[in-house]
Amino acid sequence: MASYSAIITNASEYVKSGLIDHWKRWIVLVILSIIQIITINIVPLVSGYLVRVYANPDDIAPEIDEYGKLFIDGWKMNIVTILYLIPAIIVAIAFGAIGIISALAGLLTEGKITHIAGFVVGSIGILLAFLVFLLITLIMNMAYVHFSRSGRILDAFSVGAITRQISDGIGWGGYIIMWIIVWILMTVLFLIISGLAMIPIIGWLALLVLTPLWSVFIAKINSNIYDNRP
């Protein structure tokens, strides 16, 4: 099994050699990120580039070209994301509705037990939705790689093949630990950007400049996990 440090180091070197050392490519990604943000993901060119990163398991970052294909691939990722998140949304809405109904019933009957029941059910619903969201996110990250390798969007929903890829590779325990490490790194980055945000304009500039680097970094980590390398 590839070590966690090796996976992170490889992804870091990938970003350095592919974007930082090729700063023009980095600038283009920053511009595409701004476009994607302004259009509320309707023009997902950065997402399309991430699909290209997933599709190529080697350690050479792909060029930014064929914008029409980037647009199509970006929308493939949008569709995969939306469809994967539907179960978590359904669970949240279902339990949230039950909690609200219980709370309203408590207000009408002035029954403390009904109030408590509504609170408990609502809390369980939020927790369950969060757990479902985490599980779906873990599978969804590998689904991005899986469909990018074949180019067929339906392959993103070959859950059996995707879960076997995780089990036979890094393993579920290793996969979860890897993502805990990533979340810690993300928290540190967030704190740094939050600190910079106290300086006018600097925080927003840092966010715009660092977002493409972080996105490609995560994409390469996912790719390495999928291939159980380096």
Describe this structure in words.
The protein is built from eight helices and no strands. By secondary structure, it is mainly α. The longest helix has 43 residues, at 67-109.
Q: Kindly state the percentage of residues in helix.
A: over 70%
Classification by helices and strands: mainly alpha
- Name the poorly predicted regions: none
Radius of gyration: 20 Å
Q: pLDDT average, as an integer?
A: 87
Oligomeric category:
single chain
* Strand residue content: under 5%
> Main beta sheet: strand number and arrangement?
none
Q: In one word, what is the shape?
A: globular
Order of helices and strands: HHHHHHHH
Can you count the beta strands? 0
The termini sit apart by 9 Å
Work out the helix count: 8
List the helices and strands and how they pair.
Blueprint: H1 4-20, H2 23-38, H3 45-55, H4 67-109, H5 112-150, H6 159-168, H7 172-196, H8 202-227
Provide the descriptors you would attach to this structure in a database record.
230 residues, mainly alpha, 8 helices
Can you give me a brief rundown of this structure?
By secondary structure, the protein is mainly α. It has helices at residues 4-20, 23-38, 45-55, 67-109, 112-150, 159-168, 172-196, 202-227. Helix 3 packs across helix 4, helix 3 packs across helix 5 (112-150) and helix 3 (45-55) runs parallel beside helix 8 (202-227).
